[in-house]
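Entry for the shared binder. Reason: the reviewer on the internal report wants the predicted structure included alongside the sequence.
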Amino acid sequence: MMATKKSRVVVPEKSLPPEEQQAKINEIRKSIGSITSKFPMLCSDASILRYLKARNWNTKKASKMLKETLKWRLDYKPEKIQWVCICCVFEDVAHEAKIGKLYRANYFDKHGRTVLIMRPGLQFVSQRHSPLLCKSTSSTEVQIKYLVYCMERAISDLKPDQKQMVWLIDFQGWNMSSISVKVTKETAHLLQERYPERLGLAILYDPPKVFESFWLLVKPFLEPKTYKKVKFVFRNDQQSWKIMEELFDMDKLESVFGGRNSIGFVYEDYAKRMMEEDKKMSDSTDNECLSHSPSTMILELQHSEPNSDLTSEASDDETDSSTFLEEVEEKIEGFSLGSKDVETVEVDTTSKRSETE
């Protein structure tokens, strides 16, 4: 008889007074060492605080998470990704953006948060009607590269008093065949491990019933503070519709989301905007330290590696995360796409806004 898998163990989220928060920030900065001065933004108090919150104030786990992010940035160089790669044809982010499945809105929500718009159904539609246009989307590497590019630009666009963003996800044209297990797993890992506490609110706009059922399967594996940031909005539901009216200027919001802006995504305009931002980013990247040898800095990080107790704790945390993603993958693969008897599910459509952390 097969063992029944359990949901993730949920640890109650802690709340610490300011002086204790600062003490933990100082502890992490000390554990990382002098390299913090070479990453002024990523090792700022506000940034370290995000890693502490992501690890529920466990300084050992938060320190390891931040060190791994520093190593990743030295190796992957996300700040160097540009809109156009002169040595690529289908392997640049400019081509990946053409179908408009992921882009940054040219407006903020009413709290001043950057808005990332995702339209996953467009990939399925475009693959059927324009396979040449979608050639780049067959590469997981390029899709992740474009996601990193969008995250970097969205963060740089945040207003001074904001550290989080809003994801606005349109499900028009979406079905279960739109899901790539590999891309889903890599996306989850990237967002959780490299950009912790950047999500302020995720709005799932008009998802089909099949997705609602899938959501109920996945939800038990998510931390409460994560799924509480997810709101379902249905165009014909007045109660859930209040979320959009409370969050956005309806004159700026695209008509596909019920707003009064009929222009929507125009690739040529977006490309021009991104190239202008690339020029600004090249002069103000977080990794000014790349004038030093990346390999030397990686060695510095390795020399400040945690003791065996930390390694053990962090490994347990990584194993838990890996197991979680594997279980979600099984849920995706085991979900009956062809079922016509999908049960009606109740979805939280409360109009209460998620508080900015």
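Summary line for the report: Strands lie at 102-108, 114-118, 165-170, 199-205, 230-233.
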